[in-house]
Design goal:
Helix content: 55-70%
Structural class: mainly alpha
Distance between the termini: 56 Å
Number of helices: 7
Shape: elongated
Strand content: under 5%
Mean pLDDT: 87
Radius of gyration: 26 Å
Largest sheet: none
Low-confidence stretches: none
Number of strands: 0
Length: 140
């Protein structure tokens, strides 16, 4: 696919797609000097619809990369195994191993019209379901 951006815009977009700690030059104003444009030009390019669409497309493509996701999960796993509790929590959340059990209760009656006994029965049914799912998860 041919790019709708000119060479300098491509260079700027490639610079934007580089993690901040790895960018050369290190700042947008220094890049503007290197590209031979004013720094306000770079800010204006960021606002152009075609530039923004291409930037968003590339960011989405990068974020959806299975390889990148796997690297991140591997890094979290390593940190978790070395005792980092926050990494362990994030890893378990990302792999849906820590998600709370979702309980969905449907009732055709308005909540204010439910009797105390009916409400108690709904709560008891939800508690029973939770208890059963926890028993299923316990190791033998």
């Amino acid at each position: 696919m041919d790019s709708i951006l000119d060479v300098r815009q491509e260079q700027f977009l490639n610079w934007l797609m580089t993690p901040a700690g790895h960018r050369t030059p290190t700042s947008q104003d220094k890049l503007a000097l290197e590209l031979g444009v004013d720094e306000t030009t770079l800010r204006r390019w960021k606002k152009k619809p075609a530039f923004k669409l291409e930037w968003e497309r590339r960011v989405n493509e990068l974020q959806q990369s299975p390889e990148r996701t796997q690297k991140l999960l591997d890094s979290l796993y390593e940190r978790a195994m070395n005792g980092d509790n926050n990494s362990a929590k994030l890893y378990l959340q990302a792999t849906n191993r820590l998600a709370p059990t979702q309980v969905h209760v449907e009732h055709s009656t308005k909540p204010s019209d439910i009797s105390d006994a009916e409400l108690d029965a709904l709560i008891a049914a939800a508690a029973q379901s939770e208890a059963e799912s926890r028993r299923e998860l316990k190791p033998l």
